Amino acid sequence: MRNFLTELGKRRLVADGAMGTMLFAKGLPQGWCPEEWVESHPEEVKAIHQAYFDAGSDIVLTNTFGGSPIKLANYGHADKAAAWNQCAAELAREVAGTDRFVAGSIGPTGHFLPPLGTMTEEEAYNGFTIQAMAMEAGGVDVIFVETMTAIEEIVLAVKAVKENTKLPVVATMTFEQKRKGYRTMMGVSPEMAVEKLQEAGADVVGTNCGTGPELTVGVLRAMRAVTDGYLAGQPNAGLPEIRDGKHIYPMTPEEMVEKMRPLLDLDVRIIGGCCGTNPEFIKRIAAMVKGA
Prior knowledge:
Elements: H1 4-10, E1 13-14, H2 20-25, H3 37-40, H4 42-55, E2 59-61, H5 69-72, H6 81-96, E3 101-106, H7 121-138, E4 142-148, H8 151-164, E5 169-173, E6 176-178, E7 181-183, H9 190-200, E8 204-209, H10 213-224, E9 230-235, E10 241-243, E11 246-248, H11 253-260, H12 262-265, E12 270-271, H13 279-291
Parallel strand pairs: 1-12, 2-3, 3-4, 4-5, 5-8, 8-9, 9-12
Antiparallel strand pairs: 6-7, 10-11
Helix pairs in contact: 4-6, 4-13, 6-7, 7-8, 8-9, 9-10, 10-11, 11-13
């Protein structure tokens, strides 16, 4: 098995694209629990990982974005957290083999810590710990804590991974363009994200999701101004439009890759896609990254 951080020190790595987009394309019903498919449709989940590897991904993310017991409780599946996170890791590992990387995906709980909500720090930390330990048992190489907007929540997730596993952590937040510059929904700036996440132990920091590649480039430029560390960028394929009740992302793979080129100049080490991207996008991104 290759070491993730050692490899990252040698070259840029291509992450995969959207999991949700691919699951819906394979028939996941609206409102259904995506993580449940690791149990009921394992071959479909593996086929998604395979498609991304075939497109040029060096890393695939597990189907565990909403896999914390707190989030799974919305579907009545809180008790499945450990089993499903481990199963998701094993499915991805089976496809990856020993020469490609598997990242365990940890997304937000969907709940707020006080004073905005009632979720306790202990509940959040314990939930993230259950995910991280189960995914480590399932064979992941790294954990991606992603799409977070609250600094307190993402710091708890990073600490849960670092204090309970031996895995490296990539920590990415989702930003918007505000009047005062780039901020997450909860008011976190790129500079604050870098400081707090590195302090918590993140090995790689960055941004994912958002309105598209221009935003990602802007945020990572701001991050690069305050750190020499590893950066990650995984933008959406533009802003979604609703057509016939479905979210449609307007950017073509060619348009998106053209706008992502500045990431190479910023020495962003992990480059991939988020919502609206599929293996076609990753094929183009991989060609850009590997041709650099």
